[in-house]
Description:
The chain is built from 9 helices and 8 strands. By secondary structure, it is of the alpha/beta class. The strands form 2 sheets. It has a 6-stranded mixed β-sheet, sandwiched between helices. Strands 2-3 form a two-stranded antiparallel ribbon. The longest helix has about 60 residues, at about 1-60. It is globular, with a radius of gyration of 32 Å. The protein starts with a helix and ends in a 5-residue tail after the last helix.
Amino acid sequence: MYVCxxxxxxxxxxxKFASAARIRHQSIAEAAARAKIYKERRDASQVSIEDQxxxxxxxxxxxxxxxEDQYVESESExxxxxKLPVLTQEMEAMVRLALVPRPVGEVLVEGFRLSVTRKDxxxxxxxxxxxxxVINFFMSLIMERGKLxxxxxxxxxxxxxxxxxKSSGYKTVARWTKKVDIFGCDxxxxxxxxxxxxxxxxxxxxxxxxxxxxxxQGRNRECLxxxxxxxxxxxxxxxxxxxxxxxxxxxxxxxxxxQMNACDCGMFSIRYAEYLSRxxxxxxxxEDMPFFRRLxxxxxxxxxxxx
Length: 307
């Protein structure tokens, strides 16, 4: 009986050691498997990083650098007489009446799925800051003129486009051009609102150029690169092809008319757009702004640009 007990204890001890050995071998095998997985992930990550670096280098070689573009009038433009539209007494009377601020909610004009109230129109009075409604209506007039035979074909994004694109990315604005092929236009104009300052960006397909116009001579590399990325993604979405950046330039335009106060950035911006859209030299100045304000009131009222 004593021998049987010893044999039983020996067998139990042997089974215990065998079980411990199996657990130890299993742990070693699991550790080896984990090490292999970690190594594969690390190698894949390294390859991914290297691929990303190579891709950035490839893109950098294709992407145009951001430069300053000094605006210089040609000799013919310098000799060209500054021709501004004329507002008759009757037109001036219409302008004065439209600038009466009350009743603020009265709608003065409707068009392009937009409406302009007395409150909106009054932003064109004195040294007031222009609001979205006035700028968007005026940009719609530029687009409408571009439909005429012999005119530069233009697409204008509204004032809400760039902030949305910048803050939320391309997917949030992809449907904004659902019925429009911007690549079939000569140029695209984009109002850029920087908190309390208006600027204008222009994509000129004829010149393969994206240009930024700031009446306070600010620089905005981020805007230029954001719009370039937009073109690449828009082309891929609408054309199902890669957009060729070869030959394209990005520039902050200098030597342009500048504002001499803190109030007329909106006026300068929409007049940059109006002049660019008819290939006119930027030969206006701060002194023209009081007239341009009245001119803009009349053009919105009549729903027609006079230039």
